[in-house]
Amino acid sequence: MPPSPPVTDHRYQLLRLDRAIFELLDARARLVEEMAGAGSDEPSRAGAPRVAADDILARHAGALGADRIRAIAAAIDGAFGAEPGARETGA
User: Structural domain boundaries of the chain?
Assistant: First the structure.
């Protein structure tokens, strides 16, 4: 078995992944803003779609468990101001 990469390589990979995640969230923010038709940083609660967690879970087979996916989706929904009854993005 080949030697594992140094911890610093893993940290660099995590840094790159974190940056990519936040770039995607920024893109999501722009789309939510467009959908809400507002030019502000705070989209209206009614115009913010929820993360399609159920759709994601139906197609997900990775190491990230269902509870974690739901928690992340809830955090994203909260950050974007989506109400629990709002439509999901996959609907």
Answer: 7-80
